[in-house]
Each structure stands twice: as structure tokens, then as C-alpha cells.
Write a structure and sequence with these properties.
The chain is α+β, with helices and mostly antiparallel strands. 36% of the residues lie in helices and 35% in strands. It folds into three domains: 48-67 and 321-408, conserved putative lor/sdh protein from methanococcus maripaludis s2 fold, CATH 2.40.420; 73-79 and 237-318, Efflux pump adaptor protein, beta barrel domain (Elongation Factor Tu (Ef-tu), domain 3), CATH 2.40.30; 84-208. It has a six-stranded antiparallel barrel. Strands 7-6-4-9 form a four-stranded antiparallel sheet, with no helix packed on it. Strands 15-16-17 form a three-stranded antiparallel sheet, with no helix packed on it.
Length: 409
């Protein structure tokens, strides 16, 4: 029994000595990390990354590209001209030759109003004109006779073969004949004017299109009564379509007549139609603080239709060889605009001056040299001095293994 207790005591003592030697060795190994230069670097790295671990980021080089800056406006398309066809005379529609969607040309007959009564009136007035002309002929013949009689009496008076009273009677007859001719001529002119008026009214029963275009709306059918203010058809010219939109103050000076426009509509996804700014209003609406702008888009195939909702991009500036970086590389930090560069294993903020921008890139005017690599994906989450791990740097594998070796020092 005593032998067993002695053996147990010896085993326990050996175990305690072994444990104590292990703890002392670990403490001895840890002591240089606190006071040595290598330990100081490790301590600094641990303090810098204690709250923010190294962030994984992507990079891209500053390169030269063409930058086109756009302004986007929206609105509804309208036709070049939209005309309601209204008859000039009231009456019942005898026929309508144009239907919805039909293409019509200027001067083409599109409808006809009943004209039988007008035709009868025209015939009657034509007969009156013939009567008036005959009356004028008769009055002119009587005038010639009166003129001859007056000349004869004046000759006889000069020879003493006629009295003064006879000559005066001849003069009175001549003057009366002149007045009769004038009256008959006036009556003929009045009747002729009435005939011309009826002929114009008769021609107005044939309704023609005043413009080239398409029938956009048809309001009446054959047999309906059309008043003088009733629109029978609506014709729209879509050889060119327009869009009227509003322009805000900050963009007003950048948009002038002649600016190129690219039009997109939902009916033709992925397609763009070229247009141009044709007019810009010289005044602003006091309520909206905007100015009206009109954009014209040639439509030779008639694919664009009035009423379509359109999105228009206006090209307001273009730089063919600008120094650019991706848009997500430019950030605002502490009231300054700039980019993050790679400084060893940390991010360094570099202030820049920007210019034009499009959907993908931003022009850099100052603060960056061509070829400099900037942080793109992940830049928004960075602060100056943050540790980073670039994912797409040239020689990325060597950089990462080097970083691992540095971390081990």
C-alpha cells in the first residue's frame, strides 16, 4: 500500500513539473512580441484592424474614353399636324370614303354631303343669269337707237330744222337708255354673284383632306347629319412626330435648337430613333420653373404613333478623348470628391476634379494620372487608412503571398 502511494505521489509531481515548464516557455516566447521591433509592428497592425477587418476590393486603371453626357426627358409623342375635318356647309352625309387608319393625301375627297337641292338652285340661278344677259342686250340696243336719234336731232337743230324741245326730249331718252343699261348690267352682276356663291357652296359639299396623313378618328357615318361645326374625321400627319417636354432651369443653357436626341418607346424595346431639338421656349413657367421644349423625330416608316410614351436622351456635351474612371470609383468623403488609391495594404484617399459623366464612366480633370489604378467595387465602404485586399491587381497572387509573409513577421 505504501509503495502504491509513493508511486502516485511521484507521478503527480512529474505532471506538475511538466505543466509548469510549458507555461513558462509560452510566457518566455510571448515576451519578445511585446518589446521587440517585430512585436511593435504586429501590435500596430492588430490595433488598426481590431475594429475594421481588411476589405476585399476591385480596382481599375484610369484610361481614356469618349464620354457623352445626356439629359433624359420624358413625354408623349404627338403628330406633326392634327386636323379635324369640319364641313363648310351643313347637310346629310351622302358618303364617307375614308375609314379609320386610312392614309389620305391633301385634296383627296373623304366625304360627300347631299347636294341635290343646291344643284336645283344652281340651275335656277343660271336661268336667271341668261334672262339678265338678254335684258342687258335689249337695253344696249335701245341705247344705241337713242344715241342715233339724239345725234340726228342735234344735226337738224344746227340746220334750223328742229326745235330745242325736240333735242331735249332726245337727250332725255338717251339718258334713260343709259340708266336702263346700267341697271340691267347690275342685275346681271348680282345674279352672277349669286350663281358663283351657290357653286362654291356646291363645291363645299365635297369634303377633302387639308393635309397628308392618316385618319386618326372617325366621328360620323354615312346618313348622319353634319353641322357646320361638326368634325367628321380627324387626320394626323405622322411623317414627323413631335414631343413637347419641360426643361428645368439648370439644363436650360445646355439645350439649344439643334441638339441631337435619341428617342426610345416601349413598343420597340432596344431600338432608338434619332431626332433633334427644334424649339426651346424663351420664357419659364412661373409655377413649374420650367421652359417648354419641342423635339422633332423623322418618322419615314410611320412606326412611331402619336400618344406613345417616349424617353428622350439629349446629347448636351461630348469629349472624345477624356481621362476617365468607372463611376463607382468616385466617392464623396468628408465634403471632398475623390478616389481611393492603393498604398501598400491600405487605402489612400486622393481628391480629384471631375467633369462629364455618362452611365459608366466619369471624366477626371485634375488629381489623377493616366494608368493610375483606383479602387472601384468597395470604394463606398472605405475610409482613408483602411486595410484592403485587392482582388484584380496585376500580379495579385504574389502580392497576397507577400502580404502573408509580412503578417507573419
Amino acid at each position: 500500500m505504501k509503495k502504491f502511494v509513493v508511486i502516485a505521489f511521484l507521478v503527480a509531481g512529474a505532471a506538475g513539473a511538466y505543466y509548469y515548464s510549458r507555461q513558462g516557455g509560452a510566457a518566455t516566447a510571448a515576451a519578445p512580441a511585446t518589446g521587440g521591433p517585430g512585436g511593435g509592428m504586429a501590435g500596430a497592425g492588430g490595433g488598426r484592424g481590431s475594429g475594421r477587418p481588411a476589405l476585399t476590393v476591385d480596382t481599375a486603371a484610369a484610361t481614356r474614353h469618349e464620354v457623352i453626357e445626356y439629359i433624359t426627358v420624358v413625354g408623349n409623342l404627338i403628330g406633326q399636324a392634327t386636323v379635324d375635318i369640319v364641313p363648310r356647309v351643313a347637310g346629310r352625309l351622302d358618303s364617307i370614303s375614308a375609314k379609320l387608319g386610312d392614309r389620305v393625301t391633301r385634296g383627296q375627297m373623304v366625304a360627300k354631303i347631299e347636294d341635290r337641292e343646291l344643284l336645283q338652285q344652281v340651275k335656277q340661278i343660271e336661268q336667271n343669269v341668261m334672262v339678265n344677259r338678254a335684258t342687258v342686250t335689249q337695253r344696249e340696243s335701245d341705247l344705241r337707237l337713242r344715241k342715233t336719234t339724239l345725234a340726228r336731232q342735234q344735226e337738224l337743230l344746227s340746220r334750223g330744222l328742229a326745235t330745242r324741245q325736240t333735242v331735249e326730249d332726245a337727250e332725255a331718252g338717251f339718258n334713260s337708255a343709259v340708266a336702263a343699261v346700267e341697271l340691267a348690267t347690275a342685275q346681271l352682276g348680282q345674279t352672277q354673284a349669286r350663281l358663283d356663291e351657290l357653286k362654291i357652296t356646291l363645291s363645299n359639299t365635297t369634303i377633302v383632306s387639308p393635309v397628308d396623313g392618316f385618319v386618326g378618328r372617325r366621328n360620323l357615318d354615312q346618313g348622319a347629319f353634319a353641322g357646320a361645326n361638326t368634325a367628321i374625321l380627324s387626320v394626323v400627319d405622322i411623317s414627323t412626330v413631335r414631343m413637347v417636354s419641360n426643361l428645368v432651369e439648370k439644363d436650360f443653357k445646355r439645350v439649344t435648337p439643334g441638339v441631337q436626341a435619341l428617342v426610345e418607346v416601349d413598343a420597340f424595346p432596344g431600338e432608338q430613333f434619332a431626332g433633334v431639338v427644334s424649339r426651346v421656349a424663351p420664357v419659364f413657367d412661373a409655377a413649374t420653373r420650367t421652359a417648354s421644349m419641342e423635339i422633332e423625330v423623322p418618322n419615314p416608316g410611320y412606326r412611331l404613333k402619336p400618344g406613345m410614351y417616349a424617353r428622350v436622351r439629349l446629347t448636351v456635351d461630348r469629349r472624345p478623348d477624356a481621362l476617365t474612371v468607372p463611376r463607382n470609383a468616385v466617392v464623396d468623403s468628408e465634403g471632398r470628391r475623390g478616389v481611393f488609391l492603393i498604398d501598400g495594404q491600405t487605402a489612400k484617399f486622393q481628391a480629384v476634379t471631375t467633369g462629364l459623366q455618362d452611365n459608366e464612366r466619369i471624366e477626371i480633370l485634375e488629381g489623377l494620372a493616366e494608368g493610375t489604378r483606383v479602387i472601384t467595387t468597395g470604394a463606398l465602404a472605405l475610409r482613408a487608412g483602411d486595410r484592403i485586399t485587392p482582388m484584380n491587381m496585376p500580379g495579385r497572387g504574389g502580392a497576397r503571398s507577400g502580404a502573408g509573409r509580412g503578417g507573419g513577421l
